[in-house]
Each structure stands twice: as structure tokens, then as C-alpha cells.
Amino acid sequence: MDIELQQIIETVYEAGAVIMHYFRSAHLQVEQKKDDSPLTVADRESNTVLTHMLQRYSGHPVVSEENPMLPYEERRRWGKFWLIDPLDGTKSFIRGEETFTVNVALVEGQLPVVGILYAPAYDTLYYAIRGQGAFYIEHHGRPQALKRPPMPAYLTALISKSHQGTKDKELLLGLPVKHFVPMSSALKFARVAEGKAHIYVRTGPTMEWDTAAGQVIVEEVGGVVLDLDGNMLVYNKEKMCNEGFVCKLYPELQTFSSVEQ
User: Fold this and answer.
1) Does the residue 66 lie in any domain?
2) Is 89 labeled as ligand-binding?
3) Domain of 166, in residue numbers
4) Which tens digit of pLDDT belongs to each residue from 30-78?
5) Helical (H) or strand (E) element with 86
6) Number of domains present in the structure of the chain
7) Residue 35 among known ligand-binding residues
8) Which of 108, 127, 161, 236 is deepest in the core (most CB within 10 A)?
9) What is the rounded distance in angstroms from the CA atom of residue 58 to the CA atom of residue 81?
10) Is 85 labelled a binding residue?
11) In this structure, are 114 and 132 located in the same domain?
């Protein structure tokens, strides 16, 4: 494993340890941000660890959900930058559920080239480097390659637990979906990459830090992450928002593209 990548992974582990210190705490304090989404001390402290260490190790700028958004005129000149969500699935975390993640991606130009997802409650980390494959590490052990299994006769589809809507399921009309599973956070990308699910749809908006790390991991096992018009998601847009996407382990799966947006 590359030395710099190992340093980044250790930093992600450190952020995960900070989060777990507050997990299921009876004294967890929750604030509301301007967009009415929740914020905890775990979000803040994880963000501090990641922002400081990523800049220290690489010198690249950091864009985080929990940092002030820098002007596009400044961001557009960057060759590379880190894109992070220090605690994805904060609502799940507050409820005491285990499906929250730390999301870290390195974006070059408009595409993520490194992706790391860490699920601290499961102590499982997923990572990928564009062109070099995708891997997972359980309990701080040795990396194991993620390999795409053959397509099954029946599919499992993931949908957002916090933003369930009928349009998500409508997008899958005509596919042999046997199970619809609601789930929080970018862990859904990991579940697709490891073949425990096969497709994840989201017709509502997300932010770039929600998808970048997971996109690289899914693509490196042979899957795709596309917008609702069938184009690859791109990053460092003026407004760092995705308008909807489909994450497919098998690119040949045809979704119902005429769902109104």
C-alpha cells in the first residue's frame, strides 16, 4: 500500500475513533444547522481531525460539509482537492444506528480518483484508487480485493432511509427487484460494491461529498454511478449538488429513465 494512502487511511481511522467515543452517548448534544440538518460534536471533531491531517499530508485544499464553502472562483483553479463528509448519516448516528460513515475522496479535475468509506461501528473500511481496483479492510486487518459477483436472477435495491419517495422505486420498474432496503449514508455504495445489493437509486438532491468516495469504489469493481440522464457524475461544480443518480453494480441494468424530476 502506498505510504501516503496508508497515512490517509490512518487519519480516517482516527476520525472514526472520535465518532465512536460519542456513539450512543446519553449526553450527546445536537444542534440544528441553517438547513435544519443535525450537527453533533462528533461531526465537528471528526471534521477537525480530517481537515488538519489531510492538508498536512498532501497540501491539497479540503472541502467539507462542515467547513465554510469557498468561492467557486477560487475552487475552479484547483487541480486536486479533498472532498469529505466527516460523519455521513448523522441522523442514523443520533438514533444509535450503526449505518453511518466517514467519506473521504480526492478529486482531480472534475472526477474523484481516490475514495475511502469507513463504517466505524462495523470497523470496516472500503477504498479504491482509479485504475487500481477496490478493496476492503475489516478490523484493521489486511486489504482484500472487492470483486463483482455474477448477476443474480433477482436484485436487491437500496433506497435512502431519510428521503424515501415513490419516484425512487418507479425508476426501477421492469427490473427483477425482489427486495427494497432503506439504508442511511454512503454505506449504500459499499453494499453495492461488495455485492450485498445491486442497485441504489436516488431521485432527490444530494451533495458532492455524499457520493464522491462511493463512486470511485463502485466504478473500480465494474459498476457505474450516473445521473438520471445517463451521464457520469462530475465534481467541483459551482453549486456542489447532485440532482439525482443511479448506482449500478451491473451497467447493463436498464432503469426507467422517464421518471419526472
Assistant:
1) yes
2) yes
3) 155-248
4) 999 988 899 999 999 999 999 999 999 889 999 999 999 999 999 999 9
5) strand 80-88
6) 2
7) no
8) 127
9) 9
10) yes
11) yes
